[in-house]
Amino acid sequence: MKIAGILLVLPMAALASAAGHPHSGTDVTVTVTQVRSANGLVRACMTGDPARFPQCRTGTLSYRAVVDAHPGQVTVTFPDVAPGRYAIALLHDENGNGKADRALGMMPKEGFGFSRDAKVRMGPPRFDEAVFEVADSPKSMAIKMRYML
């Protein structure tokens, strides 16, 4: 099972940011469930660019957020999101090092999740498996954090 490319080197310094976006959008609020500990941070990245998912590199149509981890659930909000199609990738960065740690170079040691709870098979889901619509009104969703180890 190849999961090496699954997640995210998300160096997210800002609590929430959007590169090049006017302030005329709506809020997208994500309830992250099944967080296993209070260790570290939950890092979230939302992108409207299929080529940037799930790594979510900085660029147009990419939003980032970071919150402290709490056992059970945490809430992440992306403010001022322009209408469009987006996908979200999550990382429970338990040691706070800004990257997804792996065991044996392949298996994620930290939690991860995707919008629409898109399934992980032989790697991360495709953008179209995790995509959702943002319109003019606030959007809320839940994403389950998953752990392999």
Account of the protein in words:
The protein has one helix at residues 127-130; strands at 16-18, 26-35, 41-47, 62-68, 72-81, 84-93, 102-103, 107-108, 111-114, 132-134, 139-144. Helix content is 3%, strand content 43%. β7 and β8 form a beta hairpin. Strands 1, 3, 4, 6, 9 and 10 form a six-stranded antiparallel sheet that branches. The protein starts with 15 loop residues before the first strand and ends in a 5-residue tail after the last strand. The protein is mostly beta strands. It is globular, with a radius of gyration of 14 Å. The protein has one domain: Immunoglobulin-like (Sandwich), CATH 2.60.40.
CATH class: Mainly Beta
Instruction: Compute the number of strand runs.
Output: 11
Class derived from helix and strand content: mainly beta
CATH architecture: Sandwich
Rg from Cα:
14 Å
SSE string, helices as H and strands as E: EEEEEEEEEHEE
Q: Note the beta-strand portion.
A: 35-45%
Q: How many domains would you count in the coordinates? A: 1
Distance between the termini: 14 Å
Name the quaternary structure. single chain
Question: Within the CATH hierarchy, at the fold level, what is the topology?
Answer: Immunoglobulin-like
Count of helical segments? Answer: 1
Label the overall shape. Answer: globular
